[in-house]
């Protein structure tokens, strides 16, 4: 599970900016062990997490100077897998079946992408369409790595293969607001797939 992404060094004593990706600050409390996605860095112990002016900074017991802090820029901070039974890493999700909450097949997770607001699952639907599904609890309420699937409750129009709810406006090209000119970097959407 991704807890955050390390940004630029801050100060001279090893503190770094952090993009926090967890709703539970206790996961980054002082004394907590975390992992990074770089095996050479391995496990770190949080010394302090603080927020000021809307920005978060973190320091680790093992990092005490600016040079080491700069070398970690861009690394992901991960929860240790043993810390909780339902923890997972992005690579664990690739290949999982995507199902509706009623069990209907919706596709396969082919990638997990880090986006500014939250991660997205890239799901290849049965038709071959690749769709960005926001990886938030309201849309992905269940992840069962051992069982080999994720549960999706997508809003109407998110998945290319799913029918729109009754009364939804459509035009000749699909749902209103679903054209390529409306896709922003944080929007869920579809990728064109060559036949």
UniProtKB/TrEMBL annotation:
GO terms for cellular component: cytoplasm; ribosome. Residues 157-195 are annotated as: Disordered. GO terms for biological process: ribosomal small subunit biogenesis; rRNA processing. Its main location: cytoplasm. Residues 163-186 have a biased composition (Acidic residues). Residues 3-82 form the RimM N-terminal domain. Keywords: Chaperone, Cytoplasm, Ribosome biogenesis, rRNA processing. The keyword Chaperone applies. The keyword Glycosyltransferase does not apply. Pfam families: PRC_RimM (PF24986), RimM (PF01782). Residues 91-158 form the Ribosome maturation factor RimM PRC barrel domain. One of its GO terms (molecular function) is ribosome binding. It is found in: Cytoplasm. Belongs to the RimM family. The PRC barrel domain binds ribosomal protein uS19. An accessory protein needed during the final step in the assembly of 30S ribosomal subunit, possibly for assembly of the head region. Essential for efficient processing of 16S rRNA. May be needed both before and after RbfA during the maturation of 16S rRNA. It has affinity for free ribosomal 30S subunits but not for 70S ribosomes. Binds ribosomal protein uS19. This is Ribosome maturation factor RimM. It comes from Serinibacter arcticus. The gene is rimM.
